[in-house]
Amino acid sequence: MAQLHAVSSCSSTNLLFNCSKRGSSRTYDKVHCTRTIAAHEQVGVKSSEFHGLAVSQNIAKFGPVRENHAIKAVLASDKELSTSSGANGKVLRKKLNKVVLAYSGGLDTSVIVPWLRENYGCEVVCFTADVGQGLQELEGLEQKAKASGACQLIVKDLKEEFVKDFIFPCLRAGAIYERKYLLGTSMARPVIAKAMVDAANEVGADAVSHGCTGKGNDQVRFELTFFALNPELNVVAPWREWEIRGREDAIEYAKKHNVPVPVTKKSIYSRDRNLWHLSHEGDILEDPVNEPKEDMYMLTVDPKDAPDQPEYVKIGIVEGLPVSVNGKELSPASLLTELNEIGGKHGIGRIDMVENRLVGMKSRGVYETPGGTILFAAVRELESLTLDRETIQVKDSLALKYAELVYAGRWFDPLRESMDAFMKEITRTTSGSVTLKLYKGSVSVAGRESPNSLYRQDISSFESGDIYDQADAAGFIRLYGLPMRVRAMLQKGL
């Protein structure tokens, strides 16, 4: 049978990275896999939804344009496609054409690239989402992807979409998991997975892959989103299949396959960072009795070292969603970024909790959510003016279920979407502003106002008024307490 050569192999192909800069961030266009053809052949690169750039150029030794702008693997003899062997003649688990991999550039995902090629005989498209993890996490990705054997790299800025379409709905709903967790990682996974499905459609991939372990929640969050948005995609989860069991195994595999091991200092903690939060797990945190070390925190100062003078911040809110800080209107991502800086300076938003993972085990995590803590306090306080008692009670009860659905990866579940429609409708009158006082790790309310306030000073005042007659309270109390009186009468034989 003819031998299969994957055109993504760096040893036999040329790779082109088109790089563009937008402000302080950097995005990388596709890495184009090629085969040798006549010099007059033209490669046209379609304007992509991911980068908004159109590149069309005449380049020698580049392959013919395909409808999906992806160059297929070709046979050395141009004969029948092999479906039984992959790289190094290894028997394939299954033949796939192209896989979009959630890619960070770290050790695990760098190793996954050659592992997918070797075990599935496929081209690998690396996909990286910018959800606010920091520019340092995005630097050098094109070199790493190329060195690992990927045929294509896509970097997409999802920060505004992440905040506007995922964080803000949870904020409006008041969704908090198990009393404390503000769902930072839970909200980030579906926005990334959604963009991966879009990328798979863009490049003509028939599969998607992630580097989540079989013990965590993230595997569920990714895969439920894949199922909901494109059930025809194959899903490959290497950590549930391969023989690699830890960091040393991964390093050994990387060396064997000539994949440069990322030269980074190994953190003693497992961290996940995005624009909403920073989570810490592992090491001494695995024992719930241990207090976190102060040098672990990265977004917030120690409250005792925060400024000795409180800072007041005014949050403008329209229909349950924040729109301004101190009178300055900002985009969703910019607003959150500013509040993260303000809150972090005052040591706001540190949460230490033991939570119940979806897969059944308990885990201990420490979260830093400075901007999010400020926003939750602001929205909740404004609702105290604009929502009546029964509405608040129903909203709070639904918020628990809403948080459970998001935590469990069911973002695209019709139930969550229906509940979100309710939350949107019920908060139509929640507009106004809230002034908060930030001081040494605490957030307290200094003032709140709304044109739709249900609070009436003329009714609430202890002074006599025309609307509320205090004498009416006696009859109300007798009727309201009638069941208790009847029970007491029965017990006493009356």
TrEMBL record:
InterPro entries hit by this protein: Arginosuc_syn_C, Arginosuc_syn_N, Arginosuc_synth, Arginosuc_synth_CS, Arginosuc_synth_type_1_subfam, AS_cat/multimer_dom_body, Rossmann-like_a/b/a_fold
Start and end residues of each Arginosuccinate synthase C-terminal domain: 269-486
Keyword annotations from UniProtKB, A to Z: Amino-acid biosynthesis, Arginine biosynthesis, ATP-binding, Ligase, Nucleotide-binding
UniProt GO BP: argininosuccinate metabolic process; L-arginine biosynthetic process; urea cycle
Span of domain Arginosuccinate synthase-like N-terminal: 98-260
EC number: 6.3.4.5
Pathway(s) it belongs to: Amino-acid biosynthesis; L-arginine biosynthesis; L-arginine from L-ornithine and carbamoyl phosphate: step 2/3
Keyword Isomerase assigned: no
SUPFAM superfamilies per UniProt: Adenine nucleotide alpha hydrolases-like (SSF52402), Argininosuccinate synthetase, C-terminal domain (SSF69864)
Single Gene Ontology MF annotation: argininosuccinate synthase activity
GO cellular component terms given for this protein: cytoplasm
Highest taxon listed in the record's lineage: Eukaryota
HAMAP family xrefs: Arg_succ_synth_type1
Assembly with partners or alone: Homotetramer.
Protein's name in the database: argininosuccinate synthase
Species classification: Eukaryota, Viridiplantae, Streptophyta, Embryophyta, Tracheophyta
